[in-house]
Amino acid sequence: MSLADRIPYAKLIGLEVERRADGIVCRLPFQPGIVGNARLPAVHGGVIGSFLEMTALLGLLDEAGGGRIPRPINFSTNFLRSAGPVETLGRAEIVKRGRRIANVRVVAWQDDPGKPVAAGVGNFLLQQGDGRESRPER
Amino acid sequence: MSQAYAVAPLFGENRSEFVDSVPHCRTLGIECLRVGPCTATLKIPYRPELVGDPERGVVFGGVITTLLDQAGGAATLCSLSELVTIATIDLRIDYLRDAEPGHDLFGRAECYKRTRSVGFVRGKAWDRDPDDPFAHCIATFMLGSTPVEHPLARIVAEQAS
Fold first, then answer.
1. A129 — pLDDT class (breaks 50, 70, 90)
2. Most exposed of A76, B3, B82, B161 (fewest Cβ within 10 Å)?
């Protein structure tokens, strides 16, 4: 089962994972269902944010070689350029993986890696293998 | 406080105009429950395809981003005195706890400050109880992002006459 297959929402937005020599690149093919502004058209900001967060998660899972899916504490997205009706690519950089928390930066681009459409950063809670971290307090 | 809100003719319940023209909102089934001065409340019905972690059955965080981005944009539109296009500058979501698996999700945003160029928004998302949110959001929106007419302008004019 590939990385993206573990996450149903990844399948809904059509996310794919490509393995490169220096890590993974996530790809978001364009489809009409991800459009926000129909006039331009532009990919919906929420889809871009989701794609960035997904890329961060998959980057953490890839680096760990699998394991439990990390839980986001927060995620911040900066929208830099309108994302047009073409494929979007994303790459994550793990800034710091601690024992319990990881900080991950992500960038997304389309035709030109030098002109990113969005950038994000998130903090993730790393779940222990036995699932002890799972149940939230209310 | 009396102030002419540009989309005042659309204030009220079940104003689907705020999501109708947005293809991804149709994909997710997002509904606009209520809009008023500087505020908007939206809903995403639960579907298994929205899940992030199948072990926990929790909707993926990015779906909440979409819900609150859309609510924030709608709230910003509801703060304008002149209808212009808007675009998100940035958006941060804090996940306070897991969303309840299987539950419909709700998001409410408020544009609490608007300058000539920027709308400042805060929002929250909940499942059972709006006073027990599972996510908080802060965001900023650029006003007048493109020189073209806003898609809602025609609808507002029709409702007003």
1. low
2. B161
